[in-house]
């Protein structure tokens, strides 16, 4: 199914926006711009058309113009009167930039200079025109035909003056019709939407934020292909349109990612399957304490959590990850969702409506992944629905890994003795001498009643003796205490999930938010 619609392409350098048409298919997002093409007759290029107009006693040249050098845009035809001189040629269109009048170049002329020239050019006026594909939106030119039934531009007034080069007659904003009796072999022209850029959506990413900052673009976003090709900044007329397109493009990217995962999994063993992967933004601290965001590609595969700067497209790419962590030793945490009771605020954020409050240094859909040695990675995604998927995927990937491995053993020490500490899915916690392998103590998961640590290497585990009901304290020292604590947390969560899957679902912060909205 193909989705089409009108949007604006914003140029950050000139700060102008141009009308475009978007065409979305399952695999590609195409940007189209209007142009005038020769559809029959002479085969010469439609880039420059030279047309002779015969001034009429009633209606004059039958057109209006807008723009000029003082506005840093060419003079363009802004209206064409039906059945008048300009319309009858069948070769002039709204949006045509006037290049010459009777052989005089007017590309750098002001509005008034062109008006004067046209009005005093005699009864037979020869003009050379070229269709302006990137007409700034402030000109408020109607898109004409072909186009949407409800035109965005025609209802708004332009700050630029329309000079009508006609006498009497009512102007219309429709595209010019062909002359009633065209001359044989005369070229015939039409205004059409032409493909100018196609962005493949496989492994593509979306950004609603100004590059590297926390500043959310209003009703706008950018789509970047795997090879770095960008759509540019796509602006929409309403928050609802922006949200609809964002969801549609995001859905297609997700579907293609799922296909890529299935292809990758055909080449992997059952114990090394990809559970989920996708683009996120990772936050870094700048040298001046500012917050910078960089695109990262995350993957949950087999026993590992991967962080890439670019997606893995071949089996060899998996060893080129920036970071690889053992899934048993990471802790996923929803970092910022602005839950509270303010669903109205959440809904508005989702749609990009934020005129009434400051969003400058905040991103709503954030999670952190805590790793070993007390370190963590802080990520942000573009949509609340993506946050739900990441939360669920981390739970599933960790659970599958724990089911596969069954247990995890760490070297530790206490009072000079070198010991081994094992967390086992079936048996719980076991501590034994690393040399003799003699078991020093063993407790079930249900016997763990609490713990405390010094934030460095030492932990106290509080177990309840089943016979005496007394609490027994066991102290141990680990080289990477954080990894061990995360592992214990993962095993307990997996144990609970195996007994009561509904309980784990009920603890999902992101899903609670999504369903409440």
UniProtKB/TrEMBL annotation:
Pfam families documented for this protein: PDZ, Syntrophin_4th
InterPro entries listed in its UniProt record: PDZ, PDZ_sf, PH-like_dom_sf, Syntrophin, Syntrophin_4th
SMART domains membership: PDZ
Keywords from the named record: Actin-binding, Cytoplasm, Cytoskeleton
Region called Disordered, residue ranges: 143-186
One cellular component term from this protein's GO annotations in UniProt: syntrophin complex
Family in the record: Belongs to the syntrophin family.
The name this protein goes by in its record: SNTG2 protein
Organism: Aramus guarauna
